[in-house]
């Protein structure tokens, strides 16, 4: 049984703050500060360039990747870390597209995160493919024989709606379509099972529910049955079969190693590695049960105290991730008022108040506090102040 009181104590949570924005940026694990400092003082400072061998920096992307693999239903040696999520999306989609040379359509949905769509748009223009975007609920009906790739974010960043990975992957395979799953709002939030779903590719970031810190590196997974066949368009030095042979012609490394691109961000990955320590005693079924408990309590509490808000998240917990969204015409100002009162969520255009629930550190007291403060703000219309209408660069 997972001890969520112990995992909560593993984080630095500022006094007086109810933090419900872990689906944007997780808080700092207490162990990360010391681990990064040790790396900088004991490794970078003293070892200099010899740290690539002596401290194991070169192999860090696979070592940390194995730790992420357990949380997403993947196996050892199947996940590699590095670069940004957009780069990993490009790698996965381009590799899948190459493996279906007679097909030219990439299917996604309008609930996908815009940057994934931007990447697919650019790739489609470059290779003469077509990006087809449909409503989230219309994805299954649009899986047809002309598709090369199905590119889906499992949990919708605005609504929290969760796609059925196993069912959509099964239908895609029936039509000869390869799947790319973005787990940005799934990894560390829900019980992902990539191997059980027989997905083809998956990518994700680590600064949300995995708490790796701002800009921490992304990950990529390739199903083992495809790992030695997949060849992404973006071919980097670290993905070469023998990087230090300095061969002028690219020859891909075996397996997931070919999905490496640039030099690993060692400092950031060290912080992520420390963050993953918190997961060592966590059972993913317990995590999912706790997530449902918290989101159910929040939905019921808000609907009872703030009737002017409209639920924007599936009511059935099986159909949502670990976040809850509500809509209101003055959503931005309301969220700024909440933040001013120490309850931190975020806003997504055009009118969505978004709250992420991270079972590692959120509890029922957080739910109660957020419900109470939100209800008070709406009752008193205290959101209607000039400073709360002034939009910042990051919302």
UniProtKB/TrEMBL annotation:
Function: Catalyzes the cleavage of L-kynurenine (L-Kyn) and L-3-hydroxykynurenine (L-3OHKyn) into anthranilic acid (AA) and 3-hydroxyanthranilic acid (3-OHAA), respectively.
Positions of transmembrane segments: none
Subunit annotation: Homodimer.
One Gene Ontology term, aspect cellular component: cytoplasm
GO biological process, one term: quinolinate biosynthetic process
Listed GO MF terms: kynureninase activity; pyridoxal phosphate binding
Cofactor dependence: pyridoxal 5'-phosphate
Reactions this protein catalyses: 3-hydroxy-L-kynurenine + H2O = 3-hydroxyanthranilate + L-alanine + H(+); L-kynurenine + H2O = anthranilate + L-alanine + H(+)
EC number(s) recorded for this UniProt protein: 3.7.1.3
One Pfam family named in its UniProt record: KYNU_C
Hydrolase as UniProt keyword: yes
Record's protein name: Kynureninase
Database matches in HAMAP family: Kynureninase
Top enzyme class: hydrolase
Keyword line: Hydrolase, Pyridine nucleotide biosynthesis, Pyridoxal phosphate
Pathway(s) where this gene product acts: Amino-acid degradation; L-kynurenine degradation; L-alanine and anthranilate from L-kynurenine: step 1/1; Cofactor biosynthesis; NAD(+) biosynthesis; quinolinate from L-kynurenine: step 2/3
């Amino acid at each position: 049984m997972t001890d969520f009181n112990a995992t909560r104590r593993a984080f630095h949570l500022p006094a007086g703050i109810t933090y419900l924005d872990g689906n944007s940026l997780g808080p700092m694990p207490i162990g990360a500060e010391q681990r990064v400092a040790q790396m900088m003082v004991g490794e970078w400072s003293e070892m200099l360039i010899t740290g690539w061998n002596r401290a194991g920096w070169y192999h860090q992307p696979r070592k940390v990747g194995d730790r992420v693999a357990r949380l997403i239903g993947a196996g050892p040696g199947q996940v590699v870390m590095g670069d940004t999520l957009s780069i990993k999306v490009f790698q996965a989609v381009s590799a899948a597209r190459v493996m279906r040379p007679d097909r030219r359509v990439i299917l996604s949905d309008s609930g996908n995160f815009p940057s994934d769509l931007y990447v697919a748009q650019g790739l489609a223009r470059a290779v003469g493919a077509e990006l087809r975007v449909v409503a989230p609920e219309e994805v299954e009906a649009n899986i047809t024989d002309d598709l090369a790739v199905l590119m889906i974010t499992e949990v919708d960043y605005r609504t929290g709606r969760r796609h059925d990975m196993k069912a959509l992957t099964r239908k895609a395979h029936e039509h000869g379509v390869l799947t790319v799953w973005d787990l940005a709002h799934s990894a560390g939030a829900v019980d992902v099972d990539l191997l059980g779903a027989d997905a083809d590719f998956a990518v994700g970031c680590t600064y949300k529910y995995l708490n790796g810190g701002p800009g921490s590196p992304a990950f990529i997974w390739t199903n083992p049955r495809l790992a030695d066949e997949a060849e992404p368009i973006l071919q980097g030095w670290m993905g070469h079969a023998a990087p230090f042979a300095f061969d002028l012609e690219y020859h891909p490394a075996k397996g997931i190693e070919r999905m490496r691109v640039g030099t690993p961000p060692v400092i950031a990955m060290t912080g992520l590695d420390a963050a993953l320590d918190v997961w060592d005693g966590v059972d993913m079924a317990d995590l999912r049960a706790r997530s449902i408990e918290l989101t159910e309590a929040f939905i019921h509490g808000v609907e009872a105290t703030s009737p002017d808000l409209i639920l924007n998240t599936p009511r059935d917990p099986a159909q949502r991730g670990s976040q809850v969204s509500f809509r209101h015409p003055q959503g931005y100002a309301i969220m700024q008022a909440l933040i001013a009162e120490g309850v931190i969520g975020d806003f997504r255009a055009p009118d969505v108040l978004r709250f992420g629930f991270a079972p590692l550190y959120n509890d029922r007291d957080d739910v109660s506090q957020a419900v109470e403060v939100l209800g008070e703000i709406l009752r008193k219309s205290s959101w209607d102040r000039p400073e709360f209408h002034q939009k910042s660069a990051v919302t």
